[in-house]
Specification:
By secondary structure, the chain is α+β, with helices and mostly antiparallel strands. The protein is 32% helix and 25% strand. It has 10 helices and 12 strands. The strands form 2 sheets. The chain has a 9-stranded mixed beta sheet with strand order 5-4-6-7-9-1-10-11-12. The chain has a 3-stranded antiparallel beta sheet with strand order 2-3-8, with no helix packed on it. A hairpin with a 5-residue loop joins strand 11 and strand 12. Helix 2 packs antiparallel against helix 3. The two termini are 39 Å apart.
Length: 333
């Protein structure tokens, strides 16, 4: 089961103007007004300010375990050793690069992780200085897993199935995990509003999902979209490669939820992130998932390069682990 949440951080910016054509230059020479505005925005951001404000929000929630920091494809920090409470190390690494990134950047990716209430959470912040007018300057994505459902080191598929199968039949486990996750995302939203008062901070969703992959669709195990606004984007996958046992878990959960009298509030989705219906709807209508198999996914849903409105891509997943004291300043400076 995947726990996925998203928070948008919007800041005031200025419209980017394009260069005038020769004809437009001539028109302006005769006193005519020429509209050179584009649908792109520019926000003045400093990397040190962004990290400091997000860090303060994380510290409010007791989060101090950093995973990585990547700025414009340069790996500033990466926790390859799994060292706990290393957020100060990330801040120190950034200070050593402040001469390069202190005055601006194109894209920043900052990830941390946290454990609470039996959940393993990855919190990824992405910020851009230029973006489409209808998109936020920053996106904070949260991906989580139920710790007891994660495969253990050296655990065989059969051992995993025997251990997890009884848990899959406990609706209270999933309801509790969902509510704890929603609470966390809500608290993170509140902390970001406090640490970035000049921004508009809006939670977009926080939900529990199970992927229904007909005929063993491989996208359920991988196929991570690069764009964080994509409905299938899961920051947990960006930093922890999916286990082959994840598909086994999805199958067990779907089968279990379909036979429960009162299934938990979980959303069934396709590998491309397309909603197929809730567990309650699928239990009431067993043909729901079969119909979804016949209809198939929206061909456009798997487009990894575009945002919801076809804007510019947010970039690749270079912030994952496969890539290689407070700091003054504000997010919106």
């Amino acid at each position: 089961m995947r726990l996925i949440g998203q928070i948008h951080v919007s800041l005031k910016g200025s419209l980017i103007q394009r260069d005038p054509t020769l004809w437009e230059k001539l028109k302006r020479g005769f006193g005519a007004r020429v509209d050179l505005d584009t649908d792109r925005m520019r926000v003045e951001l400093e990397a040190t300010a962004v990290i400091d404000q997000v860090r303060r929000a994380l510290v409010q929630l007791g989060i101090g375990n950093a995973l990585s920091l990547v700025i414009d494809d340069t790996v500033i920090f990466q926790d390859t050793d799994g060292k706990p409470d290393d957020l100060p190390d990330l801040v120190l690494a950034l200070s050593e690069h402040s001469a390069v990134f202190g005055r601006g950047f194109s894209e920043l990716k900052f990830a941390a992780e946290h454990e609470e209430a039996g959940l393993h959470l990855v919190i990824e912040t992405r910020a851009r200085t230029e973006h489409a007018e209808d998109e936020p300057a920053g996106i904070v994505s949260v991906g989580g897993r139920v710790r007891d459902l994660e495969p253990r080191a050296g655990e065989s598929a059969e051992d995993y199935r025997r251990r997890v199968e009884p848990l899959a039949k406990d609706p209270a486990l999933f309801e509790t995990a969902r509510m704890q996750f929603e609470s966390f995302v809500g608290r993170l939203e509140g902390a970001l509003k406090t640490s970035i008062p000049e921004a508009r901070v809006e939670q977009r969703h926080a939900e529990a999902r199970v992927v229904h992959a007909p005929q063993g669709d491989g996208a359920a195990a991988g196929g991570q979209p690069a764009n964080p606004t994509h409905p299938a984007y899961d920051p947990f996958v960006a930093y922890y490669p999916p286990s082959p046992l994840g598909m086994m878990l999805d199958v067990m959960l779907i089968s279990s939820f379909m036979h429960m009298m009162s299934p938990p509030h979980v959303l069934f989705v396709s590998p491309a992130g397309t909603p197929l219906g809730t567990a309650q709807e699928a239990a009431a209508d067993p043909g729901l998932l079969n119909n979804a198999d016949r209809v198939g996914d929206d061909p456009g849903a798997g487009d990894e390069g575009d945002g919801p409105e076809g804007g510019e891509p947010w970039g690749d997943d270079g912030g994952g682990l496969d890539d290689g004291g407070g700091i003054d300043g504000d997010f919106g400076d």
